């Protein structure tokens, strides 16, 4: 019986899968209209504050956007952000505007054609945003080997990624690399494709299914276990939606497998625990994050209205107190007295994600237990 996700690919199969993926994004697809499914399409509407930014982005960059979600962490002015699998650079350019002249964005991709598009519009975007110097750079590299790119460990406030991790063969290496590059208090904020069961090996070998971000998808619960094993103690789902496989032939191939596009926030903060524990703590949002005057959404289960006091578990407390969000909250309590498991939480996160995602994709807890 299979007990969990294993990366069983050999070195030679690895390079051929990468070559196929790179070919798919560099040569087969010329724009998002060539996609066969909606896996690499974003169904959610852009938040209002992002619309004027996206409208400034060069058309060629937008045409080659293949993301499946919105990856715009809040309160990132002046921050360093890393985008894994940055493609033609759409998200990097939106983030470039949000981090501002004093921030920095690094995009990493392995496909020359995508990097060429991203790089060719750096100067155009610098001018559009009115920056004296470009604050974006694109590096050619393999996100499974982030330690080979010369990036300093613990130097990023946020790592983002949009519809890419599913394409990697060694997904654990990607998560570990992201974890190592994050500062304490940083977060991996990313959208990707997941499945409600493990994908059979023969489907994983289908280059179109793989390239379309389907057959490389992780079973949600294997993903959650893997994320925890590299140090992301409490992955929090922000949004989720089931994918529609429009193409009949593709639908026949995947049969009953249900795929989801899910956006997670995975905070790296010292002291986080495997479960949500109750220390009698509470927080209050000040309404001070730019573009979020009325409320701040940490995850699908934690929407903090300005001025209202919320009791929280220890992990949520740390996600706010030991991160860049600290100045935007008032805090009560400490970790001196433990009152047991946080009262609104289940004891098991495993299994909840797939069930919840299929029943209620807009507010699924996806591994967060409160
Ligand atoms: C579905 S596209 C998404 C691109 C971009 N994030 C966007 O939203 O438009 C996947 C991208 O991931 C890149 N990619 C896939 N596997 C990679 C790897 N192991 N290392 C670096 N880039 C990779 C591909 O070259 C491609 O540009």
Q: What is the CATH first-level class name of the largest domain?
A: Alpha Beta
Query: In oligomeric terms, what are we looking at?
Result: single chain
Binned, the helix content reads: 25-40%
Order of helices and strands: HHHEHEHHEEHEHHEHEHEEEEEHEH
Q: What is the CATH third-level topology name of the largest domain?
A: Rossmann fold
Describe the structure.
- The chain is of the alpha/beta class and 370 residues long.
- The chain has 2 domains: 11-267, 3-Layer(aba) Sandwich (Rossmann fold); 281-359, 3-Layer(aba) Sandwich (Ribosomal Protein L9, domain 1).
- It is 29% helix and 21% strand.
- It is built from 13 helices and 13 strands.
- The strands form 3 sheets. Strands 1, 2, 3, 4, 5, 6, 7 and 8 form an 8-stranded mixed sheet that branches. Strands 12-9-13 form a 3-stranded antiparallel sheet.
- It is globular and about 55 Å long.
- It starts with 10 loop residues before the first helix and ends in an 11-residue tail after the last helix.
- The structure holds S-adenosylmethionine (SAM).
- S-adenosylmethionine (SAM) is lined by residues 21-22, 25, 40, 65-67, 85-88, 90-91, 108-111, 114, 142-144, 162-164, 167-168, 213.
What's the helix and strand layout?
Blueprint: H1 11-28, H2 51-54, H3 59-63, E1 80-84, H4 90-99, E2 104-109, H5 112-120, H6 122-129, E3 136-140, E4 156-162, H7 171-181, E5 182-195, H8 201-204, H9 207-211, E6 218-219, H10 220-230, E7 236-242, H11 248-254, E8 259-267, E9 281-285, E10 295-299, E11 302-305, E12 309-312, H12 314-321, E13 329-332, H13 352-359
Parallel strand pairs: 1-2, 1-4, 2-3, 4-5, 5-6
Antiparallel strand pairs: 5-8, 7-8, 9-12, 9-13, 10-11
Residues 21-22, 25, 40, 65-67, 85-88, 90-91, 108-111, 114, 142-144, 162-164, 167-168, 213 line the site of S-adenosylmethionine (SAM).
